[in-house]
Amino acid sequence: MNNNSDPLFTQYADLNFADAKPVAAVPALAQLQAAQGGKSRITMRVDTAVIAAFNLKPGIAHAKAPSSPRNTIG
Fold first, then answer.
1. pLDDT recorded at residue 35
2. 37-58 as b/e, with b when 16 or more CB fall inside 10 Å?
3. Residue 25 pLDDT class (50, 70, 90 cuts)
4. 48, 42 in Cβ contact below 8 A?
5. ∠ at Cα 5 (45, 33), nearest 5°?
6. H or E element, residue 53
7. Averaged over 43-63, what is the pLDDT?
8. What is residue 64's predicted lDDT score, i.e. its pLDDT?
9. In angstroms, rounded to a whole number, what is the distance separating the alpha carbons of residues 34 and 24?
10. How far is residue 39 from each of residues 12, 21, 67, 70, measured CA to CA in Å?
């Protein structure tokens, strides 16, 4: 997978977010975030090489597999 697999990559590739404000500094965004509980659960596929690179960095909390299956009926 590369950056070109994202159809919007070329549209946003050259944007500079150096002056971007945090959500808390924009009242309308802070209000929206507070209404949604502040966090959203997402699922995404990540290359194994990316996970390996994160696991090599010091100070990064390493992901652990759940101790039991979560999608079970019981």
1. 86
2. eeeeeeeeeeeeeeeeeeeeee
3. very high
4. no
5. 55
6. helix 48-56
7. 77
8. 59
9. 10
10. 24, 18, 23, 20
